[in-house]
Amino acid sequence: MRAPIEADPGSVTVLHAVQPGDGGVARVVVDLVRAQRADGLRPVVACPPGTALAAELRALGAGVHDWRAGRDPGPALVRETRGLARVVRAVRPALVHAHSAKAGLCARLAVRGRIPTVYQPHAWSFEAVTGTTAELARRWERFGARWTHRVLCVSEAERRTGEEAGVEAAWSVVHNGVDTARFATAGPAGNPAPTVVCVGRLCRQKGQDVLLAAWPAVLAEVPDARLVLVGDGPDGERLRAAAGPSVRFAGAVGDTAPWYRAADVVVLPSRWEGMALAPLEAMAAGRPVVVADVDGARESLPPGHEAPCLVPSEDPAALAAALGRLLGRPELRHRLGREAHEHVLSRFDVRRTGAAVAEIYRELAGVRGTEHREPIAQ
């Protein structure tokens, strides 16, 4: 067995290994880094250079190491793992926190349990693929658990998915959280036409193709409805070709809050998730959401919102019916939006998430900062 890697005795350092460098994963990492810096820790992040994540972290004054890694496993895996191992040796962290499948693969191969290691899937890798590739991903997750001191899931449903795949691990569940003050809004959107907004990377996971398939049925019921897709990604060209004149593509934006405020309804028709941030952000803005029934969706919704707001994944007819019902009933939208806002304030404040993750660090590695206090709901 290899000798343990000694941590830097002069500071308490947490190394976050992250791939991808954008989207919801990046948002989670930025929020954790901000909380940990305020808590007296020294978070350092290894992530792909030139990404939105790297830029935002440097603006915060956080330590960033360039780690050149792609999203998918392939011939570059050995080089990527060696690159991350060099970062680990340079940083000498007390704990490694790997985010998403690729970083989880490289970090655990590089460290092999010699440093307390937290792996946070942010949705399981085997859900994104099919056939032999999915089976290989399940086998790796089962094998990699031996080098994982804690698997951190963002929903109970994500944990159950891992268990059902045969992953045997020490589990923790910490729900995602959002900056409730950042997304708060004063009231209804006041649009001249009913407006649906979908925020997410334009890719198969987020299911915008399902939404576009449902949209003609929405227009049949609400002819003046408008749809805005916020984000960019590999499916952008194909989705634009399939969209009609009532659909606007806003592209990637630095701040999604104005788009939530502009929405009458926010929709996320994902094929898989751990617990998506976009619905939480939308509810923090007081907007009702329609979400596909994937991991984390039921746990994110307020009690009683399942019937109007939860639809089967990859079901355009059910999605159209839910959107049409909400667009046609302003009083229902406003009530659901108020309840959603209060729900996020009480359950999904980002400060609660940061405190819970810090508690896991203390348990695994004796990492201590200033005292954590339960946030007071605003």
How much helicity do the residues have?
Answer: 40-55%
CATH architecture of the largest domain: 3-Layer(aba) Sandwich
Number of strands: 13
What is the number of helical segments per DSSP (H or I, 4+ residues)? 16
Q: Provide the gyration radius in Å.
A: 21 Å
Query: What fraction of the residues are assigned to beta strands by DSSP?
Result: 15-25%
Q: Strand order of the main beta sheet, please?
A: 3-2-1-4-5-6-7
CATH class of the largest domain, anyone?
Alpha Beta
Keywords: Glycosyltransferase, Transferase
Protein name: Glycosyl transferase family 1
Organism: Streptomyces filamentosus (Streptomyces roseosporus)
InterPro entries: Glyco_trans_4-like_N, Glycosyltransferase_grp1
Question: Could you characterize the architecture of this molecule?
Answer:
The chain is an alpha/beta fold. It folds into two domains: 13-177 and 349-365, Rossmann fold; 180-347, 3-Layer(aba) Sandwich (Rossmann fold). Helix content is 44%, strand content 15%. The chain has 16 helices and 13 strands. Strand 8 (195-199), helix 8 and strand 9 (226-230) form a beta-alpha-beta unit. The chain is globular, with a radius of gyration of 21 Å. Residues 1-5 and 369-378 have low confidence and may be disordered. It comes from Streptomyces filamentosus. This is Glycosyl transferase family 1. InterPro entries: Glyco_trans_4-like_N (IPR028098), Glycosyltransferase_grp1 (IPR050194).
Short description:
By secondary structure, this protein is of the alpha/beta class. The chain has 16 helices and 13 strands.
Fold topology:
Blueprint (H helix, E strand, L loop, with lengths): L12 E6 L4 H16 L3 E6 L4 H9 L2 E4 L10 H15 L3 E5 H12 L5 E4 L10 H14 L5 E4 L2 H9 L6 E3 L6 H4 L11 E5 L8 H14 L4 E5 L5 H7 L4 E5 L5 H6 L2 E4 L8 H8 L4 E4 L4 H4 L5 H4 E2 L4 H12 L2 H18 L2 H16 L13
Parallel strand pairs: 1-2, 1-4, 2-3, 4-5, 5-6, 6-7, 8-9, 8-11, 9-10, 11-12, 12-13
Helix pairs in contact: 1-2, 1-16, 3-4, 8-14
